[in-house]
């Protein structure tokens, strides 16, 4: 199957001001897609837009939006329409994690996490799914996590959010099969980004991928057609994600909980963070 032709396409990338989102925007622009860059830090988005227009001759449009606010789908659709743009693709990548025992977590921050990682991912998908299906030549990528594949004590809400993203996206994959739209849940494992700046416990021990490796995994899968609804980036991560099916639910959560704790407390757990993020 031929690689996707991104020329004459316009793809929204949320969370494009850093990390995996910025890498997605660069990869798409390199392939000829115009891009709409969404996040809160407009200075970063503008800088990236200038880089992409200069290096790849595409149109790059920065849009500042706080995705923790209700109704981001309509807000973004309004901004896009006001600029006269037609969207053919969407990468729902914006997200952040919270950590620590659930009973100690800040309730407001948890609500923001659910809004960014889940509620507005759904709202933005809903706002654009019809044009995406009608165009039928682009991509809908939702960035999940290897944490989607097992419950994660001390990241209980984050992992549950990502499990939602995985399940939701796989269902959309099925619904979109006849439309030409390629739908994919992309699950990174530990990836070297600003993600860990937000976590009270800091980074995990383990082996990290670069954002570019994660994006490459996603793009390769999409280029192969609409064959799979979901993919995990990195062999070790894929192995960790797949292990769950060999355990009872009880064993899986016991393992996940003890690996997660070891990967931070001892500082010597090697790949123990592999089931995290
Ligand atoms: N890094 C990892 O190990 C890892 C592993 C698995 C999954 N992931 C997932 O990968 C995705 C990208 O994360 P990353 O690793 O690239 O982290 P990152 O460098 O911290 O990037 C997160 C992006 O999300 C945006 N964002 C966060 N809150 C937002 C809000 N309220 N409104 C709008 N945009 C918001 C940030 O932009 P602003 O701050 O400018 O708004 C930023 O562009 C996330 O969904 C994350 O859960 C990451």
TrEMBL record:
EC number(s) from the headed UniProt entry: 1.-.-.-
Signal peptide: none
This protein's record includes keyword Oxidoreductase: yes
Assigned keywords, A-Z: Oxidoreductase
Single GO molecular function: oxidoreductase activity
Entries under Gene3D superfamilies matching the protein: NAD(P)-binding Rossmann-like Domain (3.40.50.720)
Group of enzyme by EC: oxidoreductase
Family listed: Belongs to the short-chain dehydrogenases/reductases (SDR) family.
Annotated protein name in UniProt: SDR family NAD(P)-dependent oxidoreductase
Organism listed in the record: Promicromonospora alba
């Amino acid at each position: 199957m031929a690689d996707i032709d991104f020329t004459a396409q316009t793809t929204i990338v949320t969370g494009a001001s850093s990390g995996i989102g910025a890498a997605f925007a660069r990869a798409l622009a390199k392939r000829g897609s115009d891009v709409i860059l969404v996040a809160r830090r407009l200075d970063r988005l503008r800088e990236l837009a200038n880089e992409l227009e200069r290096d790849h001759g595409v149109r790059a449009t920065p849009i500042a939006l706080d995705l923790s606010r209700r109704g981001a789908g309509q807000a973004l659709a309004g901004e896009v329409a006001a600029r006269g743009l037609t969207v053919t693709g969407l990468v729902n990548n914006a997200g952040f994690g919270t950590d620590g025992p659930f009973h100690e977590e800040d309730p407001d921050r948890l609500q923001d996490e659910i809004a960014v990682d889940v509620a507005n991912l759904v709202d933005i998908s809903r706002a654009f799914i019809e044009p995406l299906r009608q165009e039928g030549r682009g991509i809908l990528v939702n960035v999940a996590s290897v944490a989607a594949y097992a419950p994660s004590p001390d990241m209980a809400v984050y992992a549950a959010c990502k499990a939602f993203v995985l399940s939701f996206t796989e269902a959309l994959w099925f619904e979109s099969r006849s439309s030409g739209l390629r739908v994919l849940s992309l699950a990174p494992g530990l990836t070297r980004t600003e993600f860990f700046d937000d976590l009270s416990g800091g980074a995990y021990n383990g082996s990290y991928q670069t954002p570019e490796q994660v994006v490459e995994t996603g793009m390769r899968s999409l280029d192969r057609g609409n064959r799979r609804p979901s993919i995990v980036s990195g062999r070790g991560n894929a192995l960790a994600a797949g292990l769950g099916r060999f355990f009872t639910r009880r064993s899986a959560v016991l393992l996940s909980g003890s690996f997660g704790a070891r990967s931070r407390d001892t500082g010597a757990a090697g790949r123990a963070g592999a089931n995290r993020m």
